[in-house]
Design a protein that fits this description.
Elements: E1 6-10, H1 13-21, E2 29-37, H2 42-55, E3 61-64, E4 73-77, E5 83-88, H3 94-108, E6 115-122, E7 125-133, H4 139-153, H5 167-179, H6 183-193, H7 225-231, H8 236-252, E8 256-263, E9 280-287, E10 295-296, E11 299-300, E12 305-307
Parallel strand pairs: 5-6
Antiparallel strand pairs: 1-4, 2-7, 3-4, 6-7, 8-9, 9-12, 10-11
Helix pairs in contact: 2-4
Length: about 325
């Protein structure tokens, strides 16, 4: 039987960066677990998932490195296939299920890009464990898959984008933005260069004693009225980032530092439901008064003075940052 044809594309900047920074990216996976409550028609769910795979090429993408090349290409399979298994494991722990799927992935070797394992964990309770190559998905990918599955399972495909964004198109668009030399791109590079991220010295943490075990520490902290007012309206992630920066400043006695922050990369309306590795590492510079509590503009604040260019197309640089651009050009679509 003749193999189904494949179409190949270059990696996106995010994929290329992940590939270059991971020692064993081939064996790495991206996983998501969907909790399903209520009576479930497994066949109907499988059919809905098959339609999701048909709609999105990234769920049919494998990675092949041609002779003489350092990085692989994305190879999109025309055949709509995925691995599907069903089991009954009452009371199963979700983390343990995902760990087992990771182990099975290593044992199986090459195969379909997407592996789905439906597990019945209780009366009218199921978990759908999804496993993809690390280069094919991020947290937002599984959220988008869940939304499409819900619509398709309910017979509401009309509510979905008739022509979903294909990841290979997104990857090419990102390369075009990185290689652009127009006025907007030049301004973006100048804005980023003004952050002087390369001038921030690497942090040197003080040595700590080795520990035989790991654990979780929880502490209750009460904020005064002024600090509480400053927190309101901010996101939990911004608050945690500010706390992390303040802790690093205390530990290293540094008033200037830069940390890499993972951003979803889906701020643009057209990207909200996109599948694939859109998440990016953005380096954020912070200036902190290490002699006092978190301060911003002379007032107590949960946010150190962090800065990074906002929503501008930006070429890859040594700062390893790339921010979701404000859409000034249409993303490419293959005809």
């Amino acid at each position: 039987m003749q193999d189904q044809p494949t179409t190949s594309f270059r990696l996106s900047p995010q994929q290329a960066r992940l590939w270059s920074t991971q020692d064993d990216i081939v064996a790495s996976v991206s996983q998501g677990a969907l909790a399903l409550a209520g009576a479930l028609d497994a066949d109907r769910l499988r059919a809905a998932l098959e339609r999701v795979v048909e709609r999105h090429e990234i769920l049919r993408t494998t990675y092949q490195t041609p002779a003489g090349m350092r990085m692989p290409l994305q190879a999109v399979e025309d055949d709509v296939t995925f691995a599907w298994s069903v089991s009954d494991v009452p009371g199963a722990d979700v983390d343990e299920l995902l760990a087992r799927e990771r182990a099975r992935e290593l044992e199986r070797g090459p195969g379909p890009a997407l592996r789905a394992h439906l597990v019945r964990v209780g009366e009218n309770e199921h978990v759908l464990a999804l496993t993809l190559p690390a280069l094919s998905g991020d947290e937002g990918t599984f959220a988008a898959i869940a939304a499409e599955l819900a619509a398709l399972y309910a017979g509401k495909e009309d509510a979905l984008d008739e022509e979903p964004l294909q990841y290979a198109d997104y990857a090419e668009w990102q390369h075009e933005l990185a290689e652009a030399d127009d006025e907007g791109a030049t301004a973006a590079r100048s804005e980023w260069a003004a952050q002087r991220l390369d001038e921030v010295a690497p942090l040197e943490l003080p040595p700590t004693a080795e520990r035989d075990a790991t654990g979780t520490v929880r502490a209750r902290v009460e904020l005064d009225r002024e600090a509480s007012a400053a927190v309101r309206g901010g996101s939990a992630s911004a608050f945690v980032l500010a706390a992390w920066e303040a802790l690093l400043a205390r530990l290293t006695r540094s008033e200037q530092l830069a940390v890499d922050v993972i951003v979803d990369g889906r701020d643009d309306e057209e990207l909200r439901s996109a599948l694939g590795l859109l998440a990016k590492s953005v380096r954020v510079r912070a200036e902190i008064d290490a002699t006092s509590r978190w301060r911003h503009g002379g007032r107590p604040s949960p946010q150190p003075r962090s800065s990074s260019p906002r929503s501008t197309p930006m070429a890859q640089s040594r700062s390893r940052c790339r921010v979701t651009p404000a859409r000034s050009t249409r993303r490419p679509r293959r005809g």
